[in-house]
Description:
By secondary structure, chain A is an all-alpha fold. Helix content of chain A is 77%, strand content 0%. At the A-B interface, helix 1, helix 2 and helix 3 of A face helix 2, helix 3, helix 5, helix 6 and helix 9 of B.
Amino acid sequence: MKGSFGFRISSSYYAWVAGVAAVAAAAFLLFGFTGFRSVIAIALLFVIPPLLLLRKTGLDIEEKIFFSFFIGLGLFPLLVFALNQLLPSFRLSIIAAFAAVAIASRFLASRFLINLFR
Amino acid sequence: MGGESAESASGASGKFGKSGNVKAGFTLDSKTVAVLAITVLFVVSLYLWTLPFQRNSLPFGEGDSAWHFSIGDNMADKDKAAFRLPYYIGMWYYGFNSILGPFAPEYPPPNHVNYAMMQVFGGERFVPVFIYRAIASFIGALSVFFLVSRLFGVLPAFIAGLGLSFSLREQLTYLFGQQPTLTAIVVTPVTMYAWYKYLTSFYDSGSGSSSSYGKGNIVYLYVTFALLAAQYLLHFQGFTGSVILMAVFTIAMAVRFRRLPLSKSNLLPLAAAIVLFLAVAAPFAAVYFGSPDSYKPSWNLGRLLEWGISPDYFKGSFPPAFSLFSSEYPKALVPFLTAGMVLLFVRLFLVKNNVRELFLLSWLIGTYLVLHLDVFVGTGLNRLARMLVLENYVFFTLIAMGIVWLPQTIALLLKLNSGVVTVAKYVLAAILVFSLVTTSGRATYGSLSQAYSGIDRITPAQADFAANYLSKLPEKVYIYDPSVKVVGQWRYPKMRWMLAISQRHVGRYDGGPIAGFDNVDKNETYFLFDYSDIALFASSPSYQQQAAAWASQLNQLEQQLFNNTEPVYDINNIRLYKYENNAEVPA
């Protein structure tokens, strides 16, 4: 399956997507749409950005997801904070941080940088 | 010899759930079993840990809880993540940081930016932040699940995770509002796993081809330092815990393989990882090192004979149950913990490829060192008590390993076949899960469903007053609340939640001159007399006398200060006065 940014989503992610959907459904039952949005927000804000950077590494999917979540808790908000020192809006900074990570992940996938960090 | 070969040699799977396949007429993929187990743990924990706000969405927690919430709330509200704190929050710990000066933050930004992002995406002010807080607190159960499942298999991982989702210690830290500390600590098992993988790959590569000699898988190296950076930014205590545990394991591995994990091949990547870490950490060094905490080693060597931290050392910060062994580990778990400990030492000597056993031993020793930092470094014991969570991680892992190792060892001694071992393992697991659910699980439901359900939580009348009246006062008002001194400390968090909700400074008043601080404008000073809690107490016959005494004391002060003055607000037994004379107030 190809995403709109051209990132290929492996079929091995399906079980994880189903797991997140189950947790989001539980949150919906407990807190309505706010609960659903909150769980999806946690997945989007903390897992996806580092996952974009780790996707080309040789780690397996479980490692990528767990590492991403725990790195994302501390480092993605730092990027948002740093960009908000330059940009006028916090909300805009979240979008800009996502864009920055997506672009960085493209560069990190380049052979030059892979070799540099090896 | 390396980690992977050690993993296969000791019988348990190094990958997710090779031992976790389920055959019941159809076969579930082992990775699906792991995801299923994680989902079950997540949903059970989400249900339990959100009990305090499932029926009442008003905020809860102690002063720390309100303080952290306020900063993120301000970021989302102003659409700006500023480094300096706004007036109403900055006056709380005014002048706390000796390097950065007034209105400096006490922590790097990530925790509070996370709260703000949750408000933005969740679409509400309180519930999304509290869902984040709950998840970021119970996620320790999942980080331990990840570590244990990768090293020992899904079954012990699930048991350890379930035990941790019922952990009283973590629940209290979360409820009281020290969630940022907890969130930094929950990362430690994942950091330790990444470092374990790096070191085992390093020692594996030492016996490989010459081109990769002594290099290891550097992806794990970078991931380890990225995780350390995340911990540093979330809370220094989590970072410290990981560094100590990693150091112990590194020394253990160096002794085991008679070689330091350094070579010409890995010096450059290691230096690059350290430089990247410093680039992230250095800008916030002053946030931590400007704090007034003094670090003088106690050299109380008697403490070294204790494993944990006695409740006597942190009176007032946590209830005694926080550190008591019996509160954390029900009696039924003790035999499994003992078996896990004994068998860990037995296996260290009997198993040839004992890297994973060495890892658990390092974790145990590292935890002991962390819990005794007061002796060597001088960390305050009330702060150090929060690190007891690390003990839970290693103890619940050993409890879970007890059920895996015990049948294996008995079978080995009695030469029983593997089928008997498998049956015994699952029977013991079923007993343990039943025991956990009926003891800790039931207690967890009881305590979390009752948490902050009474007078200790801000009431609708107080929240309404803060949101609809106080919030409309000028930004730099200073509102004094004398009731904490009269009724006691239980009132303090409610006062601070009024601050958080109104985004105006509300502070305790214990008597004396009203403008003793810098930055307090006498012309924008108010006094709050809140009798609404006392009225609730008075409605209960057993508290009527106490309530009358409190009301009388508070009323006496009100008359003394504001006799013949009309309050600017007088609804629901809450009165607010503007302070307009300069007379000193008696203590």
